[in-house]
Amino acid sequence: MKTSKFFEGVRQAEIDLRGDLVKLPIFYRDGESMSGVFPARLSRLRRYLPDRRLEPARLAPGVGAVSIACFEYRDSDVGSYNELAIAIALNYPHHRVNLPARAMLGGALRGQIDGYVWHLPVTTELALKAGRELWNYPKFVAPIEFEQDAVTRTCRLSDQGERILTMRTRRIESDRSETTQLFTHVFQDGQPQRGEFKLRQQNSGQSLKPGTSVLELGDRHPIARELEDVLLSTRSVAAAYSPSMQGILFGPENVSSHFIQMASSTEAGGGSDNGKSSRVRAKNAVGSP
């Protein structure tokens, strides 16, 4: 793929993840995305958040929101793979007045969205390792399959032969291009951790029509049961689709001792390249592989 201005000015370094060299920030040069936002019981969502500094955003009185986003990454610094993010929309920072729709509407208008990453299945071991080691993302390897027709794009997630969910989203295409900052929140080393995933979405379409995304849950898998516990509806209140996207996943904001150890190990020669020491190499980023 040709160099993209989206990556200009962003410097990368190489980190040794126990034998695998990974560039940070991670560049996603080509992909496709779809997402749906579903109403959920606010009180139930709080049970799944590990810290009081993580407060679910209020969509309406007693109602919060769960976002399900499906990504097909065709070209990235950690290879091609699929990913499905299940996230709880957050009121960030937690001490801000949590008025109905304030956090989500304000975030949508600014193009800045905060969410707690609840589950994050991926399809490759390298994507798993990078996410766990650097951010402590709750990743696991599972089949994530896509299919589409002229109207709908479908994403299916299963685990060891057990269906977790199927999400169908209408392909809302437009001539819009937009940049969105997804701020991901997890829990790492005893404290909340935040990271930025910056997306440039082309021909991006959005819809507030109820049911643009429809969710079907499996019968027995624990994740399906958790979603059944919190969701008020399996019909979305908002949805988005982008047939072409690029992304930059920046490093964790709170630099942990574990991250420092990995960086120090790399600089000291923790990885090897034809017998030579591998060092943290910062360089001007380009959009080509």
Structure at a glance:
The protein has 289 residues and is an alpha+beta fold. The chain contains five helices and 18 strands.
Topology:
Elements: E1 11-17, E2 20-24, E3 26-41, H1 42-47, E4 63-76, E5 81-89, H2 102-110, E6 112-122, H3 125-135, E7 139-141, E8 144-148, E9 152-159, E10 162-170, E11 177-188, E12 191-202, E13 205-207, E14 213-217, H4 222-230, E15 238-249, H5 257-267, E16 271-273, E17 276-278, E18 283-284
Parallel strand pairs: 6-7, 6-11
Antiparallel strand pairs: 1-2, 1-18, 3-4, 3-15, 4-5, 5-6, 8-9, 9-10, 10-14, 11-12, 12-15, 13-15, 16-17
What does this entry look like structurally?
The protein is of the alpha+beta class and 289 residues long. The protein has a single domain, classed as Beta Barrel (Acetoacetate decarboxylase-like), CATH 2.40.400. It is 16% helix and 48% strand. The chain contains 5 helices and 18 strands. It has helices at residues 42-47, 102-110, 125-135, 222-230, 257-267, and strands at 11-17, 20-24, 26-41, 63-76, 81-89, 112-122, 139-141, 144-148, 152-159, 162-170, 177-188, 191-202, 205-207, 213-217, 238-249, 271-273, 276-278, 283-284. The strands form 4 sheets. Strands 3-4-5-6-11-12-15 form a 7-stranded mixed beta barrel. Strand 6 (112-122), helix 3 (125-135) and strand 7 (139-141) form a beta-alpha-beta unit. The longest helix is centred in the middle third of the chain and has 11 residues, at 125-135. Residues 270-289 have low confidence and may be disordered.
